[in-house]
């Protein structure tokens, strides 16, 4: 198999994801509504609550809007990844996933390319969100917008791999509501996205440890630190490590024919 | 990636370790009985100096060689030699000195004595008490106009400004302002005076020639209860463009257009922001945040708070030496 084949396949998958995105432009906009509501409505009520302590990477006191912006970037990627998982179940039911996996190229390559393609759309949304956040005075340093890119790619790979892993478990489209309740919400709320972890620790130590074990916490911290031009090796390390584990589990476990509609038993 | 960060950090360290041309800020820590010395280039504490009990108001001599410190609980004003950073003298101050002001002649120090309802005028060259002027109840803020004609004292309980003629040491006029006036600041040309009223939540602008109030400024900060908006320290830029007002427990500094008296912005700083001072180039404004025990640094050009620096407990006053 030549590099040209890989490239051809890579471009094909990317293009398909863009076409899908282009046909669902309203979804792009509506996916932005959710984090913007959090930023503008929810955060407004807590505006003055957080100016109590200085935590890294911030150099001074910040408003609550500034605090939750990186967490909301993570939220955009989280929702998109889970939606991606949903679409993979859908693709599987329609059989287009099988068409994709019939390609002679290695399955891990195909799946990682698919994750990257989904990530590109998510990251586009994150940047639009960050631009809109300027309106409520969330103003990270200019270079932060560039420095945050590796963290965003890593986060979208990690959550995409998780989505893929979940897609291997979901037998039917209808089970997706469960993903919402048992994956998205716990991951988002039990993380440092909405509150700093020292606050969690004050409220309850066991909650603090749940947050510490939540990989989403470390993805959010990687985004937060790099957006403010600080290097957080622990957050990056954990996010990267979890990405590899999720990706290995997902690529080895993914079976396109494992659906009820198609009837077949798991291979 | 890590390598890149290391290189960047190294480059930054080399950049900062150049010759010490830094400006120095002095911060009085009310509960630690110390002064923190901050390098205004790196925004880091470089020294801590032991001083008398409960240091509050501090100011520089006009030749910038000495720092005067109100050691409130020692009932004295201490004189710190800036070259050696040692206390070299004390001045009689009357009881519980909190704020004071030095006449441009570099000799007459006007000290507000809160408990005795007087203003004491001391000649710093021979320690003579030149006058004790009866003012309103609980005198607090003290300012002398740059042209040396007026000394203004604020009395907290009487809610008044007392306009003292510096030739005769007599009060020429009393003006009523908002409740609990705290601080007075003159413009460079001595034509306008700004006075803050802590409980009233207002700042009053006076025309000095007529001694009439020409404007009152009110403050409203989104998300902060009105009773926490308590104006205290005031600092004016020398180009006459901006005024900064420390708003106490609201944890914000107001940026005011000094021409139109419109409030332009509120900047979030530490808890109970008290006094402020600009550095030599007026690039940075330092604020003391009593309850959070730190000093916030505001970039004046961008109007952004860029850093908060931990100092001692309950930082009260701040002055930046323009010659250092």
Automatic annotation (TrEMBL), chain A:
Keywords: Cell membrane, Membrane, Transmembrane, Transmembrane helix, Transport. It is a multi-pass membrane protein. Residues 26-257 form the ABC transmembrane type-2 domain. One of its GO terms (molecular function) is ABC-type transporter activity. GO terms for cellular component: ATP-binding cassette (ABC) transporter complex. It comes from the Bacteria. The chain crosses the membrane at residues 36-55, 67-90, 111-136, 142-167, 179-198, 234-254. Its main location: membrane. InterPro entries: ABC2_TM, ABC2_TM_bact-type, ABC_2_transport, Alc_ABC_transptr_permease, T7SS_ABC-Transporter. It is found in: Cell inner membrane; Membrane. Belongs to the ABC-2 integral membrane protein family. NCBIfam families: phenyl_ABC_PedC (TIGR03861). This is Transport permease protein. It comes from Marinobacter vulgaris. The lineage of its organism: Bacteria, Pseudomonadati, Pseudomonadota, Gammaproteobacteria, Pseudomonadales.
UniProtKB/TrEMBL annotation, chain B:
Residues 1-22 form the signal peptide. Pfam families: Cytochrom_D1, Lactonase. InterPro entries: Host-pathogen_enzymatic-act, Lactonase_7-beta_prop, N2O_reductase_N, PQQ_b_propeller, WD40/YVTN_repeat-like_dom_sf, YVTN_b-propeller_repeat. Keywords: Signal. This is YVTN family beta-propeller repeat protein. It comes from Marinobacter vulgaris.
